[in-house]
Request: fold
Amino acid sequence: MPLYEYEALGKTCPLCANGFEVLQAMDDPPLERCPECGQPCRRIISAPRAHSRASDPLSPANLAAKGFTQYRKETPGVYRKTAGQGPDYIKR
Ligand SMILES: [Zn+2]
Reply:
């Protein structure tokens, strides 16, 4: 489930004073009020931070997108490609 960031629009309580984050399903409607104090709040439009490898800067998808190629040692002397361009296997 992605983590969404909210900021308070009016008065704040300890929860929303510095903004707060809520785990919500993608199709959940945005909160309109702080769950703690009930003051109006709004969802900050940003890419939801998924709790997954997608947020890992060293994930294969991110590495490939930045032009890196990643290999993982499979057996001694054999490296299998996990991201990017290049041969699927390297043998040393
Ligand atoms: Zn609040």
In short: The mean pLDDT is 83. The beta strands are 2-8, 20-23, 41-43, 49-50, 70-75, 78-83, 89-91.
